[in-house]
Target: 3'-5' exoribonuclease
Amino acid sequence: MTFDPFFFMKGIQGKIGASQGGQSQQQVAYLRQLQREMRVEETLNIPLTELNVIVFDIETTGFYPDQGDQIISIGAIKVKGEKIIENETFYSLVRAEKSVSEEISQLTGLYDTQLQNAPPLSEVLFQFFQFAQDYTLVAHHANHEKIFLQHASWKLYRAPFKHRLVDMSFLYRIAEPDAKLITLEECCEYNGITVKGRHHALNDAKLTAQLWSIYVNKLHQKGCETLNDLYERYTKV
Model:
């Protein structure tokens, strides 16, 4: 079942009063409560073959949110252990506060006319966190996602970004240190995954989810069973 933000917001419209920034007091309270209840450290010792994760991707207008670059779409999919839950996905465009460059539009297929009518980031990010709950997050080259989510969480909710976020490159380097895999295309092609619809947040999340499933098994075969094992081995690489 795809999590549809437009349907979701229609269902609760009028029940949540928006504040000056577009986010409501209820949204802020929910996110802070979610953060308080997180058991991030407990995930370190859960076998990767049993760990529930949200694999996600964002499309942005650049690399520097503190300089005005924006998130323009978020896509995500649930993976339980090594099983991809195909019918549990999230996808939304995000309203652009300023015009998107032609270069970014050609790369992502997203244009101002589409983004002008999308919900604001405050709504989309809140819905994404509702979808993700306290699951561990996974992304390809996750530092990009981390920078934007940290910036947005503080700007919108005055709350730190507390989810555990795992970078897929950790898995590549431990499982196949000689492969020198960098781009998502390279990683997919190396593992026999057909690449379709690149630079669409949900499509990229699905590709990364396939890689996660594959590398959980590769790491298991190497005796790397948990995130704790992964981090310990990564520090020795």
